[in-house]
Backbone:
C-alpha cells in the first residue's frame, strides 16, 4: 500500500507524538507499506520553521536525508501535480494542502491526515487525532514490537 503523510502526520510519526490515529499507525507498520515524503511538505516545514511557526522541526529541517535513511521514499512535485493543485475546486486556500491533495489523487496514494476537509476531494484518507491517554499503551506496544524489522515504521 502506498501512503502519503500530511505534514502533521509526518511530524507526529517521526517525533513519536501519540496523536497519530491507531488506523494510521497500523497502516504505517505494514511490511508492504511504501511511505512517501512529498517535496511539498518539505517546502512547508522549512518555510514554517524559518518563519518561527514550527520550531520543533529544527532537527528535521537540517537533516531531511534522515527520512531516506529510515526508508521513506521521495515524492517529487511534477507538472501534473502542480496543474492538478491549481485546478482543484473549492475555497481551500492552503497551497501546501492543495499540492498534497493533487499528489494523492494523481498517484492514487492513501493520504494519512486528521483533517476531514480532504475528504471533499475524493482521496482515500486514513486517520484522525486520537485520545492520547486511552491509546497510549497500545501505541507503545506496537512501536517497540516494530523496531527490529521496520525502523522507518517507528512512532518513537
Residues:
Amino acid at each position: 500500500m502506498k501512503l502519503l503523510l500530511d505534514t502533521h502526520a509526518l511530524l507526529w510519526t517521526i517525533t513519536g507524538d501519540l496523536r497519530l490515529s491507531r488506523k494510521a499507525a497500523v497502516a504505517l507498520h505494514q511490511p508492504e507499506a511504501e511511505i512517501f515524503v512529498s517535496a511539498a511538505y518539505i517546502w512547508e516545514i522549512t518555510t514554517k520553521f524559518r518563519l518561527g511557526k514550527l520550531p520543533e522541526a529544527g532537527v528535521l529541517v537540517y537533516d531531511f536525508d534522515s527520512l531516506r535513511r529510515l526508508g521513506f521514499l521521495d515524492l517529487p512535485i511534477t507538472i501534473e501535480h502542480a496543474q492538478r493543485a491549481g485546478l482543484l475546486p473549492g475555497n481551500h486556500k492552503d497551497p501546501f494542502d492543495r499540492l498534497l491533495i493533487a499528489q494523492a489523487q494523481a498517484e492514487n496514494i492513501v493520504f494519512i491526515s486528521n483533517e476531514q476537509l480532504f475528504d471533499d476531494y475524493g482521496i482515500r484518507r486514513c486517520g484522525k487525532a486520537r485520545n492520547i491517554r486511552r491509546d497510549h499503551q497500545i501505541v507503545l506496544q506496537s512501536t517497540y514490537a516494530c523496531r527490529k524489522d521496520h525502523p522507518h515504521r517507528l512512532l518513537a
Observations:
- The chain has eight helices and five strands.
- The chain has one domain: 2-153.
- Residues 131-156 have pLDDT under 50 and may be disordered.
